Amino acid sequence: MRNDRRLRRLVVDERTAYLWSVRHNRREDDARRDVLNLYRDGVRTRIVFRQGERGAVSDGYSYVGCVATGPGKLLNLREPGVVRGLVDEATERGLLPGPAELDGWDLFDAVLRRAAAATPEAPQGSPPGP
Asked: How far apart, in Å, do the first and last CA atoms of the chain sit?
């Protein structure tokens, strides 16, 4: 069985690499969260998806790392392509690199659009994504 807690490596260009991992946890207010941790040059950036009105996160037992805002609108934070989309979008907005905690829901729709643009040959009505 694969160890999902290990740090994985994502190379963005020849000189930029991130280590990343996904965690599911609860805060003191009992709110569920899925967190994508990005590490670059010893600096951690957290992209946090909180359970609530903006979207749903995994239950902590199955599908850890899957966040959704509705039918067909799902990102799997354990997929390198999704992580790359989040990194690209946060970088374009000037949020990366740097130590921060970012609201993942602010990036969610843009990453879905990136995924849909990457697969233009998908049949009409298919959910977006690579």
From this structure: 25
Every domain of the chain and the residues it spans: 8-118
pLDDT tens for each residue of 72-104 = 899 999 999 999 999 999 999 999 888 999 999
Burial of 123 (0-12, 13-18, 19+ CB in 10 A): exposed
- What is the pTM assigned to this prediction? 0.82
> How does strand 32-40 pair with strand 43-50?
antiparallel
Using the CB atoms, write b or e for 63-101: b if 16+ within 10 Å.
bbbbbbbeeeebbbbbbebbbbbbbbbbeeeebbbeeee
